[in-house]
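Listing S7. Sequence submitted for prediction.
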Amino acid sequence: MAKTRIIVALSGASGIVYGIRLLEAARELGLETDLIMTDLAARMIGIETSLEPDQVNALATRVHDSFDFTSPLASGGIRHQGMVVIPCSMKTVAGIACGFSDNLLLRAADCTLKERRPLVLVPRETPLSAIHLRNMLTLAEAGAVILPACPGFYHRPQNIQGLVDHVVGKVFDILGIEHNLYRKWREGETT
């Protein structure tokens, strides 16, 4: 039986820790991951963490160059559970919304939408302009899930890792992947 396969794309927005944690958690869950990292995402790793891009690449099952249009991810024929862009810059949102596939991340997102597979975008921008909101509405109408990096607090996180895990867990929830990254709300439960 084939393992569950997801495409993970890291764009150049702040919040690269969300994407790194998604890759770590996917590995812990035994998922196959295809990673696309933009050049600016690689720079954000150095700016926001103590890791190197190669260390993040090592978390993925397969790594694809962000300008390799011969990658299987550039085809709608590849089978996967879904694609996640985490974090998702507003430039990336705009590119996907307009069908402007000038790199592999945008092309893979375009293929994911056209094949009616789950596409989860995790924007980390604030505040949002009317242009940002229109682009996200366009994507939501096309079938993408907009999942802002807005952690909840009902699970009583004890540290930043708990906040990050909540967002990553929500991504897995959308993809239908079981996890234990945060305590789920239970019916009839009070705080």
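Caption to Listing S7: primary sequence and predicted structure tokens for the chain studied. The chain has seven helices and six strands. The chain has one domain: 5-175.
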